[in-house]
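We treat protein structure as text, and this decision shapes the records that our systems exchange. The tokens are whole numbers drawn from a learned vocabulary of local backbone shapes. Below, we set out a record of this kind in full and without editing:
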Amino acid sequence: MHEKSNSSDATLILQYQGGNKEALVELVKRWHKVFCNKAYWIVKDADLAKDVAQDSWRTIMTKIDDLEDPKNFGSWSMRIVFTKSLDTISHNKKNRSKREQYVRDYISEAEYFEGNDSLKHELLIAIKSLSLNQQATIRLFYVEEYSLKEISVMQQISIGTAKSRLFYAREKLKQILINRNYEN
């Protein structure tokens, strides 16, 4: 950011520290998309990047009174976004191994389907071609009948991410089954 933006950000920060809540609204308008883009560059997931940006704003609002030089808002806030992004990646790596084990343990042909019905067998093969996150979401939603809110809490993701995983899993399953029917 150039000097003019830094000084106008500094003015907004001083106004916010003085009690003007509208100044924060203006800062959010200026910086939220930048935060989302930076987080996306690190976490490589649009929904997760939005969550990181929101979490970063919570931290910024908590700590903005401690900001010694308001002209440094850009670099200070981007460090927060960067740190939150790395924390998210680290947290997700820990949970990924747990989810992978969960999927291996619980998604089995015998559990889903009994018998040799070809459609059921094709569906199982299609489900196994999904990402592990999508497989777990499908299982939790359809087999274990959890709500999207419950799934988001269990998987420590936003409800939007849970909806997105379920939507894209369904779409992929439709395409796989349609393509198989054309082949036969």
The chain has two domains: 3-92, 107-183. The chain has a mean pLDDT of 82. Residues 73-106 form the longest helix (34 residues). Residues 6 and 74 are 7 Å apart (CA to CA).
